[in-house]
């Protein structure tokens, strides 16, 4: 497939403005019509006239400091800056006069007087914007003699007190102050785009310079989150990626999609041959609009990490060392073992686990392998393990199993209710957009046991934080709904028109029961009743309110009930079907949504159609040419139970590390050890591979073609930037295995698989690679009724017809604290690491998060004699582990928190088998634990480390 050609994405100098009024003006004799409020600079660019600039860029608000962009405007005195001057009807602008040319050359001379001319536009930085502007203003010689400057370490043989040495503390980029012209782009990008406010301009006049915090701070020790926004906007190369310094400038660009979280950022992979030079967020990316986070921007080095496995391996038993073999031998070995398992234990004794990190096309083939080749529906995915309550709850209430609005909708919201999510850490680019909207005046309600960074948004102090106890989501949300109904704050017109009125009346009666009052719920949740009432009134009063939630909602025993409670709130107040509103699940991994869409569940085909439906089954039987089972298959936890019982014997696991990511690690270990054949298809020897018999080396997102579907239902292209180092894209490996088992598949390209998806799945009926190449991306449903996709759903009515109100009775989890385990553990993610850490732990991101730690409140720490940094024992009814303590008030007394990125800690060794009542989604977020001082690893950790070392032995390749 040819590389995607980057479209014309000129920098128009200042951002676009929203206005219903159009203004017509003349720029150098060229008429142009633009929205009122547009800058003269942008109007000129749209007319095809380029005005020189250095401090201006269309990702930032106009600043007007560099003075290169001066123009002449008839009837206006002087030469105003075009970036800060708005257009007016009939305005006549001249961008080129003798006076203007002289001013621009003089300004550029002043810049060059404090700039190392021999480095201008240096190829080492790959940034020629400064040099371009020198040419644009026609400067050819300098009048100024060398004098006081910031450029050289020495001045006349003596140390230069004005010189600032380069800051190379950050592992990914370097700041060279000698190249800086103090245009403030980096500072403004940190404020306006990222919202971190880590950078500032220190000093005045000649002494002014960019500073990363306090005088003692550098870029690594400061509040900088390494999103790369500052690097991206720097016009001089003062801020530059280390990879560019080491490798050189790229020679081609391939547009692709980030393989980390569910935001689905578009990136331009800047390549030199088969080597990635840098990843630059795409300006035209519809999910990220040119922004990125530290993971997508910089943490791609795992693709060429030395620990990648590039050759197939097999072994007879999981305690044997691995031996490298050919692809033919590995696939024959795997196929023979799978056939034997089914012959000896029955058709249902084998299954597959698909991945939320692989493409839609790869995931589609893995579930097809189970159904069309194995002859059963034993297919599951981590997407169900984390977000199946979203599918169940939203399908029950609205009729669809996905979020309702696009990310752009946040720009119109007046209030955001964030529950069980930490956007700035887990979905950073969306978190930055939400923060920007909050700074513009939108309200914020956070419902979370932990104080998340979003609450510390700069310039805002009026956010409401409801620090509930883990497991009480349903009680708090129902109490909020009770206040809305009791005080008559609901939108009756919307409810009558769009919802089942009789069901609403029944729901209203349910809510008004005194047990749902804020005062009653306060005892269960520990959230003050007054806070609940404030939140209810704020949400109901907002003209446009949106709800964003994450795994802190779904990974509970009442996860599905909580999702329905969220849907109830949106319907009660009419906050659905229009911009700035909606119910928006924030998916944790890059293709959680797509994994669900592609039929990875044991009871549903692609498009969320039940396997027992004869019409749906007939579609696939006709296309696949086989008879299909109507019986739902096994979920992952059922597979493990059956394995320990001796009835489930074979598993093909693509791209998932279930041993680290699933609950009750000891039970998972036992199940995997019971299998006759475990095939792990991945890029590294992960923890699950400790028990595998076959290892099939996978390909990274940089080595494949396909699509990901993000949290807003956006289908984005993934394009191959380099040849697969293992020899094959992942879909090809699955096809080779299927054909060893008689599948008879003949896909020639991943686009063929998407064509089959479109043929068989109504919501994808209009999707093709050609459409995505042309449009950039689309949001399903994409079909004849919506040929370019559906950014906002439920505009005129719900998919199911009338919206359903569901009574949300609070049922306390069985996992409760007590004398033996008095604390409640909840888990989550951190900014610099991703999921089980297999990718990010093999990058320099470990500088920021070298190990998982346990956050504990000072009161609980003091009671246990625990100090900052102490090793502590974390024990539950399921197991125990040891990690370091982080004493902090971010968690409330009685609550502890940790991440699960490092296998040495293996947080899931303490989580239990409790799960959601409707979907079996594990209850990761509520585990009763005890914390006590420790002097070393737990017995389990030591045993696990010994086994991991033993299981990863690889015999030398035969000569």
From TrEMBL:
It comes from the Bacteria. InterPro entries: 2Fe-2S_ferredoxin-like_sf, 2Fe-2S_ferredoxin-type, 4Fe4S_Fe-S-bd, 4Fe4S_Fe_S_CS, Asp_de-COase-like_dom_sf, Formate_Dh-H_N, Formate_DH_asu, MoPterin_dinucl-bd_dom. Residues 21-99 form the 2Fe-2S ferredoxin-type domain. One of its GO terms (molecular function) is molybdopterin cofactor binding. Keywords: 2Fe-2S, 4Fe-4S, Iron, Iron-sulfur, Metal-binding, Oxidoreductase, Repeat. PROSITE patterns: 2FE2S_FER_2, 4FE4S_FER_1, 4FE4S_FER_2, 4FE4S_MOW_BIS_MGD, MOLYBDOPTERIN_PROK_1, MOLYBDOPTERIN_PROK_3. Pfam families: Fer2_4, Fer4_7, Molybdop_Fe4S4, Molybdopterin, Molydop_binding. One of its GO terms (cellular component) is oxidoreductase complex. This is Formate dehydrogenase alpha subunit. It comes from Paracoccus alkenifer.
